[in-house]
TrEMBL record:
Identification of the protein by name: DUF1566 domain-containing protein
Alphabetical list of InterPro entries matching this protein: Lcl_C (IPR011460)
A Pfam family it matches: Lcl_C
Keyword Cell wall biogenesis/degradation attributed: no
């Protein structure tokens, strides 16, 4: 009898705990909201409780290099939504260069979150498309505007080049991996 009560207590605790955390995660958001550690810049069109936020600041005011010039990292070729984390992990695993853009994002901790990464090409383009509201929300929360400059993406092109986003004109192009460009970390929720 005592064992059955204990099992019932464990089951109820798990059910109540699970339902509370599930309810906390089911928050409808919109682009420009300051939540989940940053500014929402993308909301999944199939589920408005999922999406992406960017940090309210750039990392390394002078930027950093992508790293590993001369090394192709084929597992970092993803260019779509949610590919940035996989790219970042692949770069960090294959590249021994210190203080790369991916490593800085991977090690970043802000507003209680530590699962930041270097955005993919599509993710960085989405930040650009929503830059006015991203900038306004970031500044309202003591952060920084996106600078009119080049930002690294986590999308590898080949052994010598990776993709960047020019925030001045919205164009993506590839640059040599050992150049220093700006970094804006993102995370998914």
């Amino acid at each position: 009898m005592k064992k059955q009560k204990y099992i019932l207590l464990v089951i109820l605790t798990l059910m109540l705990g699970t339902s509370c955390s599930e309810n906390e995660d089911l928050i409808s958001v919109k682009v420009g909201d300051f939540i989940y550690g940053g500014v929402v810049f993308y909301v999944d069109p199939d589920d408005d409780t999922k999406g992406l936020v960017c940090a309210i600041e750039d990392l390394g005011k002078e930027g950093a290099e992508w790293g590993c010039r001369g090394t192709d990292i084929p597992n970092a070729n993803g260019q779509n939504y949610y590919d940035g984390m996989e790219n970042t992990i692949a770069i960090k695993a294959a590249c021994a260069t210190d203080n790369t853009a991916a490593k800085l994002c991977f090690d970043y901790i802000a507003n209680g979150y530590s699962d930041w990464y270097l955005p993919s090409r599509t993710e960085m383009n989405e930040i650009y498309e929503n830059r006015e509201i991203v900038n306004a929300t970031a500044v309202d929360n003591e952060g920084d505007d996106l600078r009119i400059n080049d930002y690294w993406t986590s999308s590898n092109r080949d052994q010598n080049y990776a993709w960047i986003m020019d925030v001045y004109n919205g164009k993506t192009t590839y640059k040599v991996k050992n150049n220093n460009f700006l970094i804006r970390p993102v995370r998914k929720f």
